[in-house]
Hints:
Blueprint: E1 24-30, E2 43-48, E3 53-58, H1 69-76, E4 86-89, E5 93-97, H2 118-125, H3 129-138, H4 166-173, H5 177-189, H6 191-198, H7 220-228, H8 233-240, H9 244-247, H10 261-273, H11 282-298, H12 318-324, H13 329-340, H14 343-364, H15 373-399, E6 420-423, E7 426-431, H16 434-444, H17 451-458, E8 462-468, E9 471-481, E10 489-497, H18 506-519, H19 525-533
Antiparallel strand pairs: 1-2, 2-3, 3-5, 4-5, 6-7, 7-8, 8-9, 9-10
Helix pairs in contact: 5-6, 5-7, 10-12, 11-14, 12-15, 13-15, 14-15
Amino acid sequence: xxxxxxxxxxxxxxxxxAAPLPAVRARLWLPGRTxxxxxxxxxxxxxxxxxxxxALRLGQARLGEDAVIAPIVAALADDAGGHxxxxxxxxxxxxxxxxxxxxxxxxxxxxxxxxxxxxxQRFAATLDAEAMRLLLWLERExxxxxxxxxxxxxxQPAPKVFFASVRNYNRLATLPPLLRERRxxxxxxxxxxxxPVLLTLHHSPNVFDGKRxxxxxxxxxxxxxxxxxxxxxxxxxxHWGISRGLVRAxxxxxxxxxxxxxxxxxxxxxxxALPDNQRPDVAAFERWLPYLTxxxxxxGAVADEDDDAQRASTPPVPEVHRGAFRLGWNLTWEAxxxxxxxLHTALADCDDFLAAARGRAATLLARRYxxxxxxxxxxxxxxxxxxxxxxxxxxxxxxxxxxxxxDYLPDLHLPEVLGRxxxxxxxxxxxVTPTMLLYExxxxxxxxxxxxxxxxxxxxxxxxxxxxxxxxxxxxxxxRLSEDVEYDTxxxxxxxxxxxxxxxxxxxxxxxxxxxxxLNAPERRDARWAALEAx
Length: 535
């Protein structure tokens, strides 16, 4: 086969290598052009006699140059924990150790004949089939969300977790038989609770550098309970801060959710607060899981990267969750979706309502500030339920009087980043004064005219009025400092709403993305920095 190093027409006996222990049982070379994005550096997979798999990216070696294998294995022979991510070896050059690469390579730019290559078959035959099956079982497809957008797409993609990596495979395949059996049994019995402790939850395969993009939620007590064959429920309950009953509940019989341990703990706290007969199974839980994050951010149970410090708080008490879901898990979400449609939008809009309620509370209490927003949200759902908060938010958005520009607020004109953009009948106008924002809120019947959005604009955020014949929308773009360019920012679309916060068409969304690209064009670098420095 082209670009592969095969030495016989049939499957020949495994080649031998003059290498120190551990011995090399099989090796597989792949050219860099078989991966996306492609490069010129060859990849090498090794299966060792101690059970490990190594995936390597070689900076100087040529494809099929087996002479480099012995020094690489010698350099990594005592690194069973996988701590060395890169090597510089004489006569070999630069070597990257790819622990987040797939244990069994799957090139994205290769034809199906790859799977019948003799070297690939020999390499695959040396792998621990039970460990591979378990890791692939953990990568199950989640239940689709209950509510989709008007175009049939999910409101936001489910988080991806990649388990079948070199690192995770080595954690299982290299164990003594008894420990391997016990850890695999624990993973199959409590996958949602044990997998984050024993394995790394990568977001995707990585065949380009040593980064793993995730860490495991290590707990020595849980590992000791598994390895000793003791009752695991107590150790898991202590680690996640939940009851033993929830540990054994059906919802944890399959892996669910993303990679963040803090968010998993917050989700488990919600489930633990519900009575046993109201806890959902895995399918019912995953149908509404995309919206649970919005609820948790609203009450301050998890942090959002764009939130201010006032959201950093102690976790809410169980009574808050019980009050929020007093109708039960399914009935609460189904009723909310029936009344309010896009729950991401409805939950996000509660922030503006709660900010207004906070200001009103400060007036009534004759204080400078009212209660923090997340505490107010937690108290509201505890007393009136999640439905009560959503309904109150909608009423406020519909009935509130339109604000007038405060006398103390000068009609400042912020530096424009883009100003106005027009293309093929599409129009985008940057809103850079309090009057422009106020008028936008009045004509679009949403909260763009509230003081919060002017404060955000002064801090660097930019709002735009987008329009074409028959459709209007308001777009919000937030800046973040660029990691690779000094004194520059990149704007990201964070909100896109039509009149009364309705969803927009796919065409309007595409235009909003075009405006984002224009904001981030290289020639507007000075304008972006001027907008940020105007703070």
